[in-house]
Amino acid sequence: MARITVLIHLPNEEPIVGEIERMPEPQDTILILENPRRKTGKDVHYLEADVTKVIIPWSRVTLVEVLPTEEEEIIGFVRDDL
């Protein structure tokens, strides 16, 4: 199964990019994020350098953006002149 790349927004912090295994369910209380990093690819300053997975409580998450993967083709505006 392909991993889903997301951008996690936390209060008073810069967003964190990482991968999740599946889309969250309504009953989930935590978000497990793999390969946490800044949007620039740099380390997250408050995590140890060798951390590869973090567990974030949903109460700390303000927004999750699902980013397109390389396999997905984004289609903006489609016009069909028939």
Helix tally equals: 0
Relative helix content: under 10%
Global mean pLDDT: 89
The biggest beta sheet is recorded as:
5 strands, antiparallel
Number of strands: 5
Tell me the overall shape. Answer: globular
End-to-end Cα distance, whole Å, is 39 Å
The fraction of residues assigned to DSSP E strands is 25-35%
Structural category: mainly beta
Give the tally of structural domains. Answer: 1
Q: What is the radius of gyration computed over CA atoms, rounded to a whole number of angstroms?
A: 15 Å
The parts where pLDDT drops under 50 for at least 5 residues are none
Per CATH, the class reads: Mainly Beta
How would you characterize the overall build of this protein?
0% of the residues lie in helices and 34% in strands. It has 82 residues and is an all-beta fold. It has a single domain (4-66), classed as SH3 type barrels, CATH 2.30.30. A hairpin with a 6-residue loop joins strand 1 (4-9) and strand 2. The protein is globular and about 55 Å long. The termini are far apart.
